[in-house]
Each structure stands twice: as structure tokens, then as C-alpha cells.
Amino acid sequence: MLLSTARLQLREFEEDDWQAVQAYQNDLLYLRYTPWTYRTEGDARDFVQMFINWREERPRYRYQFAVILPESSTLIGNGGIRSTHAQPWESHIGYEFASTHWGHGYATEVARALLDFGFNELRLHRIYAQCVVENTASAHVLEKIGMRLEGHLRENGWMQERWWDTLVYGILASEWRAQQASDSTSI
């Protein structure tokens, strides 16, 4: 499966992708908002293999895409959309990028593509996302793509030897469609 945006390709993971993943997942800037403090080769291989295994699930509720710069075939991050068997009408999205590619609008582009895929291909009713309060750049991405702040969960996550607050954002299919119609009439 392949999704394309104006500047990026989102493709299924391949086994050799672990090296690029390990490189950016060990960057100190990236590590600020993660549950781990270092990633081994085995960690990165297992991470990538998990996504490869998801492709075989039937029915399929989880999709994780390697984000590629087409002109250089460079893997710069990943993004995904995941549901559960118990609630197949609702999914959550997430994304991560190498810090060298922050600030270029790639997260916004990928998050929009995930919403489009979720609402138009998977026929979801609701999509949500979470980010730690301190990750203001991620919160800004979610707001830019039309998601609404639905909640502030206090100290609901433990990582890196401390409690973290989490923001929850959501968008409904009807809101996404209205936003898309508005965007197409303003062009």
C-alpha cells in the first residue's frame, strides 16, 4: 500500500528500514517525548517487524507507514492509524520524524493524509490523537489539520522517570468532510 502527498510517499515498512529508524530514534531531540532513552539494533528491528506483521492481520485495523522523501528515497519518519476489533469505527493517529526534518510541515502533511485515508478509505466515524502537553509542536499540527482539543488528562502517562499530562484531540468524519468542502471552495 502506498499513499502520496504533495512532497512525500507513505509506504509499508520493509525489513531494511530499521537502520534509518534506529538513527532518528536515538537522537536526543527525538527522545524528549518517548518512553525510551536509547534504541538498540534489536529494538529498531523489532519496531519495524511489528509494523510488517500488521500487514498480515485480517481483518486489518492497523496501518503504519514509513515516510519517504521521494527524490532521495530517504526515510525521515513514520505515521500510522490504528483501530481495534472492539471499536472498528474509531482510530487514532500518530507520527514521528527525525529531528532534522522538523519544522518543514511534514507532520502536518502526513497527519492530513492519515485523516484522508481513515475517513475516505477505512470509512471511520471518528479519529483521535494524543500528545504530551509539553510537545506543543505536535499539538499545533493536530490543530492545523482541524482536530479539536477534547481533553487534558492529568499525569496519565509514566515515562522517563516522571508523570506526564496528555492532550486528546479528535475529529469526526462529518467535520472532516465539511473542512474538505470548505477548502475546495476557497481555492
TrEMBL record:
Gene3D superfamilies documented for this protein: 3.40.630.30
InterPro entries: Acyl_CoA_acyltransferase, GNAT_dom, N-acetyltransferase
Record carries keyword Transit peptide: no
Domain of life: Bacteria
SUPFAM superfamilies: Acyl-CoA N-acyltransferases (Nat)
Gene Ontology terms for molecular function: acyltransferase activity, transferring groups other than amino-acyl groups
N-acetyltransferase domain sequence ranges: 8-164
Coiled-coil residues: none
UniProt KW keywords: Transferase
Protein name as catalogued: GCN5-related N-acetyltransferase
Organism: Ktedonobacter racemifer DSM 44963
